[in-house]
Amino acid sequence: MRKKWMAMAAAAVLISGCASAEPANTNEQRNEINPLTGVESSDTARRTMAVVVSNHPSARPQTALDEADMVYEILTEGGITRFLALYQSEYPDKIGPVRSARDYFIELAEGYNALFLAHGYSPEAQGILLSGDIDQLNGIQYDGGVFKRDGSQKEPHNSYVDVEQALDVAEQKGYSLDAAPSRLSFLTEKEERSLTGEPAETLSIRPSSNDLFESVYEFDGDSYHRSIGGAEVRTDNIFVIEADHRVIDAKGRLDIDLKSGGDAFLIQDGLLNLVKWRNQNGRIVPYTENGAAFVTGKTWIHIVPASRGLNKAVNVEIDGEGNGS
Fold first, then answer.
1. Euclidean distance between CA atoms 35 and 311, whole angstroms
2. Which of 10, 125, 251, 259 could serve as a FRET partner for 93 with CA atoms 20 to 30 Å apart?
3. How many domains are there within the chain?
């Protein structure tokens, strides 16, 4: 049976636990805990790499999307979503297909001091990227080198980052590659065990009316998994935020308010809670008066238009009698 999530029910549910796991400041702790996942690791002293990845049906299945520590899914023009994939705990050999940048992708990447990679740019993004203020590599300048074309696919969904070459060129340009980001806050094991919320074992997210960009997640008792073009990705946190979207030109390009904060659904361990989101030093993070944070593991953040609203964008499927339809 299927049930659309209602705000009245969600508003009554808050996360228990104080989310006391604040970011560590010492180098010793940073080297022990991965900054984007909170998972213990022996090698965390590397820079975040942020890559704009296509989600067009012709681009699926994507390469190495499942290896990202954190992924933002955001609308571009025409109700189409695109990914900003952040890699820090490991660098894959190849990532893509890579698409063009928007200014809000750059804004999100800056929150992690990431090396930014895209193939192309909007006029707003072009001005930012070519200013020299951002450490970045773009397929417009490095087509055929850092960005290699896959002859089995059609443009523009055939450009892939060769990560080894990207790192070589970044080094040649004098970009730092060992500037690990500060660590996100994560729930402690005790706080995670005390989580409460509404059951959310199967859910779908539709940021627009375009059915081709609906995402469906299923909880297997350990993490959420989602199929994209036949390839499976897994995540431990699903964070759905609503933000104001405004069309700014005749091509339908968007301005997205990523600073003002607002309502959000935080979905973890098979449970859904209504929380708030805020921009904390360039990062989109959850919070409530009682405290909220991600559980350790990977995170997917969906940004949906406030005009559409969380209730319309997110649907939760609940099994059993008496749960409505």
1. 32
2. 125
3. 2
